Structure formats: structure tokens, C-alpha cells
């Protein structure tokens, strides 16, 4: 997947696919009411409100979360367990009723939508994949995948046909008649993915879809997922606790901590400009060279020395790692070219090495 | 037989994908049709000729008498020994002034569970005192007090041995399974011969009955101790005995205490049942006596005393098992001390009989109840007759026998039979064409059974049906086992009575399954409903079997309908509990997956929760069946025909052969039903990958 065009996703309808504004999810009795009271008492201050709620014995799992998911964007929410990431995806899909705030899907406020409308939305527009697959044990692979279509009221033949298509898409052809218990973990999640895609939803929720899998299978499924997304271009909310996974697949990442969103940014921004120690901690073990581009250490042409003896052919969209490998034996600044080959700046090999240095805590 | 013809007509096109269940149903249907067709020419097909039966009762009777004769001298000695112990304990309980006992129970309640249990103990015991049945209650308590330690020691030892020697585990579990299904009254006849007439028989019977739950829970608890803990004990260098007594048994304490609780409840229940043999002025005897004399007030009060005891014993022992927190022993002591002080102050002045303030209330209750019942006799009779004529009787003797001008207003004719079966065949055909062939066949079979009546079913049909169900549920082995057991009953000479028992158990289980399933569903759907249903279930499960007879007798007198009601009241509880449990324990992710697929709550229930809960619900049905058979024998006290009646007859005549054979036949029916349902449950669980 090309990184360069990520930030410039075209917006067709104007409204983002999903917009969350000041969403709160508080657990406990009478949560919504107490939240409103606490917000009034504190003037809407996030931390003070949360403290107040906690003092009352309530659990504010999501605190004042705001973000947008653009159409066709793969938006990853990352955080440790208990940070509220699974809760927030359940608020958006309304498996939980948010205690406060506003959630819009394609411009429609879903918190005020009635039950029938929600069922309609889920049948036509939303798909969800679960951490532990959530496969129905009494149904075959094909029946599992066809279940959302059955809910839509499609006839048996039509829905099995469509199920076959999606099963083919996830590479499980031939296993239609198997039961979930007969499949390996990786295969089960393929069924989960196929089921969530059966109705061809516009919005795709994935709740730690690969976390329960072995590392090898996980990587394989991630690659296939990226391939599927490259053709389908869904608007996606993807939950994970794995920074490497987030950096690998995301267009943008939101990092959550204690129910709050602490930073939203592209993978490069997260790795190179963490807003606080918490985010830095995450990116510490990441090999930055694989995610950061030359752009981030580029110096203007005005700083160039008079002669640059070496030109190893560095381009602006190269990763730091690739650039460093190219100028292993250089000690002087080297020119950086853009796509057309024109020189747009220079880079010091020592800057590359410094940027790649892993933080020692 | 048009029915069979049409049923078979739907088949040829789909022969290739007939499932096992469909084949089984088809074979059963054909057998039934064949029996119906040949019934006129070959009467032995329908009614098993008595001449073919083996004289099993005599053989068993002679064998047992010889065996018992050998054991008798030793057993009589045991009996005498236990008699002495019992006398002593009985004397102690009766000599203990009532304020002291009330104080002790209340103090114990405080120590075990604080204010709530102390109040339960104090108020409960005061009620017993006020009811005027103090002496009888003390006699019952002393029986329990002697039988429970016996059961605890025996059960605990068996459990530990089964745990230590895995080779005997299977055997022990098999014996315990059988002991659980053999009706309690069936123990009594041989025990009566062994130990002679008297309360010691009841004591031993209740110890035998109460030991298996203890053994089961000890075994279960020990097996569930985490292997880390066991290994740590080994690595600490403990001997096997040290490991067992210092580590494993304490680690299994909670489960073992659950065993103690079940053991106590079983002993109490059995002590009261054993009162049937009489000879001891205990509270069970009082209930029986007043019931026989139709003294409603006194029998209701005596029943209440039993319930009070059951609740106190159950809640206190369960609390001891489930929580670790204990309350201040000094306050408990002080409460008991108050009892002692009161006893000294009242010394020689207030015998338990004199403080029985409810004595007048008893009379009032009696007359009021009689008046209310007499006034509503018409309604009650109408209910009873309606249920009998339009519900129970047709199932028992078939539509052809039950539909009479006297009750239904017209006579059932052969033409009606044809219409009825024809209609069923059409409905079956419709189901078959809709792709549900098995359901269609089963519908047709049920129609045939209703037409004929359960007690008049041809024996080949029933044997084939059992084999077919066994084959569907668990393959050839299960089919062979269940059919073999049924053949034993067939040749025992008690087949006709077994059919009657089967009919009553069947109707009750059916009613329980439908009602219990619906209540369970409602409880799963609405926490509000469960909040109401749950304490009722708890109560029904605490009450000793015997007590269920009192209210049904009061309203509907002696008869099959009363027995039916008593069985249902007792057997419905597991169905409710398991149905709810199964429905609410569906993993969250499955429900979320269904909801996010756009399922409505009803669709979630039907498509996800219900199939997921099926194995659990089947286990509930299984429990309901076992409960129904357990109650069936007790219900024979209020006048049912069938095996229960034979067991009582045997008890009255001290006929060991008849007692054991009819007890065994009853156990076989329960065991067969148990294995078949378990088979289906296992299959469903496997299908769900659980």
C-alpha cells in the first residue's frame, strides 16, 4: 500500500463516514443522568468530570472522545487493555448505549435512531468482526456467513450464493459445509471476516480481529486484510493493542489511554512526534526506519555544501531504513530527489542514524 | 393403514438424504402400523401374555430371603446397637428444654450468617414450638442427627476411596447412579426384613439415601483441586496421607460442604418418607396420620413444621459452605446463654405442649379450610374432571377408550379413528414436503399413540421405539442397553404396571417441559420475572417430597390428578432453572455478532440463544424426568396405579421379591429415560463443539 496518498483521501459526500463528538461511556446505574450532572458541575472539564464520576462509584470507560473517520479511511484505535478501545467501538455500533455525546454515521445521528432504524442500519450498512470470532457453533461456515443475509430476509438460494462469493474472497472455498469447531483459529477468523462482509457494508468494525491468533497466521491475515481493503475501500474502525499492527495497516491512528484519546495522527506522526511519554513508550520498540520517511529529516537545498561528491539516489518517499542502507559508506550530505528526479533538498547520513536510534529508557 | 401409506409416500424422492432420526421414526411408524393392523388377529402382539412372563418376583424374593436370612443375625445386632444410640439421642433432644435449643439454633445462625440467619433460626424454631409439634419434631431431629453422621462418614469414605483408586471410580459412580434412580421406598422392604420393625429402619434407609450426594461431592471437590496445588504438596515432601488431609481436602472444602448440605437435605427428606412404616411418633407420621383422617389444618401445620426445618437446615448449611466470613462467636454464645437463662426461669413450668399457642388456630384453620373447600367443591371437581376426562384419560387409554357419550358427549367410532389418523397423516405430509420429514413422521406416531393410549401400547412397538430412539441418540450400544433393560421389565410380569407408571411420568414430564420451558424463557427474557420465580424455585427445591402431597390432597382428594399435580410441582423446577441458565449463558460475542448482523431480539433468541442453550435445556429435561420418577413413588400414597402402588403393596406385605422387582422396574424406566436424553444432550453438545 502506498503511503504517500494516504493523507489526501478524497471526500465525496462532505460528511465523514463516522463522526464522534465528546462521546462518554459511563458504567453504573443512572449513568447518563449522573454524567450530565457532573458535566454541569465541572463546566465540562474532562478530567474533573471523570474524577467526580469515579468518586460516585461509576466507571467512566470512555471520556470525551472526539474523532472522525473519513470515507474509505482505515482508522485504527490503539491502546492497552482497559483503555476503553473496545468500549468505544461498541458505542459506535450501538451494542452499548453511549452515556453522552454525539455519534454520526454518514451524517445521521445514530444515538437518537430508534431500534428499527438501528436494525436496518446493521442489516445494510455495518459489519463487525470480533476478537474471539463470535461464530455460531450450531451453524456451518456457509450458514454463519449467510446469517446477516438471512436477517435481511434474502432467500436461501440467493444468500448461499453470496456467502460463497465472500467465502471465496477470504480464501476458504471448499470449507462451506464445515462447522466452526472443525477449523483452525486463522480459518475461523476468515469466516468472521467473510460474515461481516456478506452484506457489503459501508462501514466495517474490527475489534482486535487478529489478537487471538499465532504471530505467523496473524501476519498472513494482516497482509490479506490489506489486500482486501485495497480493493474494497471500506470506512474502517480497527481496534488493536499491537503498535506494529497499527503502524502496518493504518491510515490514521488514535491512541487511547484511560478512556481518553491522547493522540491522533498518521503512523509517521505517531512514531516521530509522540505527544507524551505514554505514546513514546509504545513507539519505543518500533523500528522507526520502517515507518518514517526521508521527508521527516529533509534539509533545505540552501544548507547544501558546494559539492556533493556522492549521489546514492535518495528519494523523498524512501523510508529511513532504505535510505540508510543506500548511503552506508557516505559521510557527507547527499542530495534528495523527488519523483521526477529533481533535487528537492539534502540529507545528512548522521541525521539518518540519529533518527533511527532506539530510545533507551 | 392409510397413515403409514401416506407417510411412506413422501419418502422415495429424498431417500438419499434421510437422516438417522428419519430412518428411526420411519421404522417405529411401520412397526406401530403393523401392530395396529394385526391387533385383531394376534392379540398377544398388543397385550403381553402373562404366561410368558418369568416369575421374577418369586425368584428374587426367594434369593433375597435366603441372603437376608444369612445377614440377619449380624444386622439385628447392628440394629440393636443403633437402637441404643438413637434412644440416647432421642432422650437428649427431648430432655433439652426448648428455650435452650431455640437459643442454640439462633446463636448458631448468628455465627454462621449474622442477623438474617439468626432471625431465621429464632423465628423458625419459635414457629415449631408454637405449632404444638415440638415433641414430634424432636423425634424427627434425633433421627436426622443419628443418620447424618453415618451418611457423612460412609459417603466421605467412599468419595475419598474412589478418588484414591481410579480403578474403582467407575464402579462407584455406576452404583451411585443406580442408587439415585431406585425409588426410596424400594429400599425399605428389604431393610424392614433385615433390621426388624422400628425407627432404626428409617434411620438406615435415610443414611443409605443421603450418602451418595456426599460421596459425589467429595469426589468432585477432590478432582477439582488445581494440579498446581497438588504438585506443590508433593514437592513439599508430604506423605500421601498428609497431602490428602492437609492440602487436598481443605482445598476442596467448599464442594465438600455442598455435599454436607445435600446430605442433610436428603436425610431429612428420607426420614420423613420413612415415617410411612410407622412405629415412631415423628413429624412425618403426624402428617400421614392427619392426612389419612382428612384433618386439613393439622396436616398443613405439620407440613409447615417440616418446611421450616428444611429451610433452616438448608440455608444455614449452604451459608457455611459458600461464605468464609463468620460472625462474632461471643454474641452467638450470649444468645445461647439467654436461652439457658430463660430455661432456668421457666424450669418445670412451661412444657412444650403448654406454649403451643397455635393449638386453637389449628382448629380454626381446619374448619375454615373445610368450609372454603366445601363451598368451592364444584369448581375444584370441575377442574379435576376436566383435566382427567380431556387430558389424562385419553393419553392413558387412548381416544378410542376415553371418548364416551358420558364425558365427551359422543362415542368414538372407527370412522373417527380413520379421520383422526388421516388428518394427522396430512399434517405429517405437509411437514414432510416442507423439508421436515422427521417432524412429520413423529407427529404421525404421536397421533397413533394418542389414539391407542399409552397404557395400551403394543409391547413390540414400545421396544422398537426405545431401540430407535437409543440408536438415534447414541448408536447401537445405547440402543442395545436400553432395549435390553426394557425387555427385562417386559418379562418381569410387571409390564402393565410399568406402562401405567410410564404414562403418568410421561404426562407430568410433558406438562413440566412445556410450562417450565415457558417460565424459563420468560425468566431469561425478563430479570423482573426471574426475581419472582427464583425464590419460588428455591422453596420448591427445599421442601421434602412428602409435603407436596398435602396441598394437592386438600384441593383434589385422592386420585391420579392429585398425583399428577404433586409430580409437576416438584419436577418443574429443574426445567425452569436449566432453561433460563442455558438461555442467559450464551457468550456475549455470539449475541453481539447476531445483533450487529441486524437480528431483532426475537431473532437473537430463536437463531442463537435457543440452539446454543439446547444441550443445557436437555439436561434440565433429564433432571425433570428423574425428579418425576422420584416423586411418582411418593405420589402413589395419594392413589395412583402402577409400579408405585406395587412398591407400597410390597411394603405392606413385607414381600421382598415384589418390592425389589417393582423398585428395579421403576429404576429401569428412569435409567432408560435418563440415558436416552443424556445421549441427545451429548450429541447436541458435540455438535456445538462444547
Automatic annotation (TrEMBL), chain B:
Compartments it resides in: Cell membrane
Organism: Roseovarius nubinhibens (strain ATCC BAA-591 / DSM 15170 / ISM)
Membrane topology: Multi-pass membrane protein
Domain ABC transmembrane type-1: 137-317, 498-677
Keyword set, alphabetical order: Cell membrane, Membrane, Transmembrane, Transmembrane helix, Transport
Family assignment from sequence similarity: Belongs to the binding-protein-dependent transport system permease family.
GO terms classed as biological process: choline transport; glycine betaine transport
Entry's Gene Ontology cellular component terms: ATP-binding cassette (ABC) transporter complex
Domain of life: Bacteria
Transmembrane segments: 23-46, 117-134, 141-165, 185-210, 263-280, 300-317, 329-348, 412-434, 441-469, 475-495, 502-525, 545-573, 625-650, 656-677
One Pfam family per UniProt: BPD_transp_1
Protein name: Glycine betaine/proline ABC transporter, permease protein
InterPro entries tied to this protein: MetI-like, MetI-like_sf
Gene Ontology molecular function, alphabetical: amine transmembrane transporter activity; carnitine transmembrane transporter activity
